Amino acid sequence: MALVGIIGAGVGGIATAVQLARYGIESVIFERDRIGGLIRNAYSVENTMFFPDGIKGEKVVKILEEYVKKYDLKILYQEVKAVRKAGGQFEVETEEGTYRFKYLVVATGTRPRKLPFEGIVYHVAEVPRRHYGRVLIIGGGDVAFDYALTVSETSDEVIILMRSEPKALPYLQKLVKSRPNIRTLMGQVREVRPINGRGKLLARTSAGDFEVDLILGAIGRVPNIELVEGMKDDNLFLVGDVKNGIYRQTALAIADGIKTAMVIWRRERYGDIE
Ligand SMILES: Cc1cc2nc3c(=O)[nH]c(=O)nc-3n(C[C@H](O)[C@H](O)[C@H](O)COP(=O)(O)OP(=O)(O)OC[C@H]3O[C@@H](n4cnc5c(N)ncnc54)[C@H](O)[C@@H]3O)c2cc1C
């Protein structure tokens, strides 16, 4: 088996594997879904310094796929169910087997915080691309405003409903303001239910009742840390959103991944433990 196991093929995991490959260090990435992770949901990524006009999240995923190909990265499309340390090695368990590594990189990202109602979608990339009449977005942060920009391009009306003053980047707020088909409202959702036979949802909120085609939830994210929670080991590394709290940014995930690979290389080459 390879020296390094990496859990998660988002930007953080792939950045780690690419930098390791540049040192000639082999890794195996475990991914339960698709290459790319969360960034595929982004309307326009502009703060990585190389795309002043912005780049769609989906295009970023295409670039990551090119990296995987160019560096011939090994990806196992398996969900990691458990991680243990045994006999000086990390054991990574999936339904298909147990894999052993000297180093383990956890780049598992986050999952959405959910509302207690059925019928809400949390990732805009999962929404079929079609025309929508009215879309309700719940949340007042960057993700809610970013989703609004995406769906406003194919919808007649988009409502962003938030409990308190918007927390989204002023830059995103300005873009949202410039779209005549997006409006923001203050309020809380009380109930969501399907409207029989019409494929629509009724959202009862403190700002009024809305009949909508789609509801997107963006009320925060929770780190996928459970696999290694409480585990401390010099050869265990956390990379990207799983460790970055509210500072969830692509550039930070990439930086974590590259630094992790550099530390692993130095340890192998010079025995450094800084
Ligand atoms: C709408 C939106 C817009 C954004 N816009 C920007 C922006 O403009 N600029 C910016 O810098 N950032 C932006 N971000 C944030 C950015 O997407 C994240 O910071 C970044 O993608 C995090 O990468 P990551 O590799 O840490 O985690 P993720 O991308 O979440 O990847 C984690 C991967 O791990 C996999 N995984 C998890 N658990 C397991 C397991 N047990 N077994 C196997 N695989 C597992 C998941 O399937 C996933 O593929 C945006 C985010 C959203 C939602």
How would you characterize this protein structure?
Residues 6-230 form the FAD/NAD(P)-binding domain. Keywords: Flavoprotein, Oxidoreductase. GO terms for molecular function: oxidoreductase activity. It comes from Thermococcus thioreducens. This is Pyridine nucleotide-disulfide oxidoreductase. The relative contact order is 0.19. The protein has 5 helices and 17 strands. It is an alpha/beta fold. It starts with a strand and ends with a helix. The protein has 2 domains: 4-111 and 221-270, FAD/NAD(P)-binding domain; 114-217, FAD/NAD(P)-binding domain. The strands form 5 sheets. Strands 3-2-1-7-17 form a 5-stranded parallel beta sheet, covered by helices on one side. A 4-stranded parallel beta sheet has the order 11-10-9-15, covered by helices on one side. Helix 1 (11-22) packs parallel to helix 5 and helix 3 runs parallel beside helix 4 (170-177). Strand 9 (132-138), helix 3 and strand 10 form a beta-alpha-beta unit. The protein is elongated and about 65 Å long. Helix content is 24%, strand content 30%. The protein binds flavin-adenine dinucleotide (FAD). Flavin-adenine dinucleotide (FAD) binds next to helix 1, helix 3 and helix 5.
